[in-house]
Amino acid sequence: MGTRPGEGEVALADTPEKIRCDACPVMCYIAPGQTGACDRYANEAGRIVRTDPVVLLSQVLEAGGKVIPFAAGTWVDGLVPEDTGITGIGAGTTYPDYKPAPFILSSEVEGVDMVTVVTEAIFSYCGVKVKIDTDRHLGPEGATVRHQGEAVGHVTTAEYGSQMLSLGGVHHLTGGAKAEGRLTCAALLALCNGEAVELAIDGGCSVTVQAGEPPVVDGIPERRMRVGCGSATIGMFASQWQGLVDEVVVVDDHITGVVSEHQAGKVIGWEPSGIRIRGHRSTPGRYFRVSEPGLGWGGTRLTDPLEILDAWNPKKGARPGLRLLMVSTTGEQYGYYELDADLTPRQKPLPPELLPTVEMIDENCEPSLCTVLFMGGAGGSLRAGVTKNPVRLTRSVQSGETRLTSGGAECYVWPGGGITFMVDVTRLPKGAFGYVPTPALVAPLEFTLPRAAYLRFGGHEAAIRSLASILDEGGEYPTAARLDVKGSAG
Ligand code: SF4
After folding, report:
1. Could you say which of 50, 217, 381, 415 is the most buried, measured as most Cβ atoms within 10 Å of its Cβ?
2. pTM of the model
3. pLDDT, tens digit, for every residue of 236-287?
4. Backbone φ, ψ for residue 227 (5° rounding)
5. Residue 442 in contact with ligand 1 by CB distance below 6 A
């Protein structure tokens, strides 16, 4: 992989030596020794070659990968393990989709004749869903997410302990200005190939996202995701605090919990403390909107948690010397206070017996990571490379008869029409994704199903080959082959 989307030039047919690549609608003319605009195809001594090796996967290899002879016409028995399968990585496309997929492999799995059809699919309809494990407010729901100034997606609904982004999609790729499409494609490609991408959210933060790595919010790496909301934290730890302290407030942007009022406190006999919280009381001991969202305590703007407390009520249990613990949902921030003679909380050092309870919150927080799921629609013309009757492939995938994988990784296929799938990009070998400057992403796909079903739904029978003949003959474009260990992404 070399140039990024937009960096490559589409060569013009101004010299006779240039030859045309027809593997995508861009149809580059490529000079000898050069690659096309996407870097995936090159002109090598007057013929178009695929620059990345086709990736084969086996479970029985011990470690690491090796490059093996491909299209050498010298098949040697035992060269590759018997369980070796072929992926769409490096396979080439079927564009313009009138021809069978580059490789259609026959194999036997537990006595059943199977077929695996592989291709590199070009996705104009695609994007990534990004889960960022953080409590911090990254930006308002619906806010535009930018990469190098261009709109590439938006903030979508937050999940439990995580903020979510939806990036890419056909409107950003092809519906806006050229720069928007180019930078959307560049951001998606980098994210899918496991690289770090800096994003800026309108009205919010900048965040660096890299699949499988902690997010960096406004330059600060996130360490832990929260143990739960404030209410859940009260539920989990109320009994451990009892007897050590008279009141606990778990500060959280979503639900701030107060142990003396919370049902978990009630059932274990926690005494009222006379505390009063500034915020919207949802149910006893559970408060919404104690502050604005931000980068402070528990995803609020708070740097001083006492701001959410109103005057204490002596008629409901407030008294001088009352002991108060305030803590965030990650345990990163905490403060211990005692009420003075005027019922004003005064900060004191955390008593040693309370420290393990705060550490327990921290211990229960999982490491904060970014998760990137590629999502694409494989329900278009690429299906013609699998079968002469494309809708039957869709039905077969939807029924579970055909298993869809991407670079050997398990996919989740959305119910309903089409073949809309998601895959965790960290489960594919690194560099498995490519692009074309239309702009669109290129992702590997493999459809695996019983041979009998394949023939029944109109599969390309004449194109089915054994692994031996695939390795012997190669594909449409000359390339190398790399044998990797299945499940060792990266
Ligand atoms: S962009 Fe790549 S795939 Fe498309 S024509 Fe050019 S070299 Fe071929």
Report:
1. 50
2. 0.87
3. 999 999 999 999 999 999 899 999 999 999 999 999 999 999 989 999 999 9
4. -70, -30
5. no
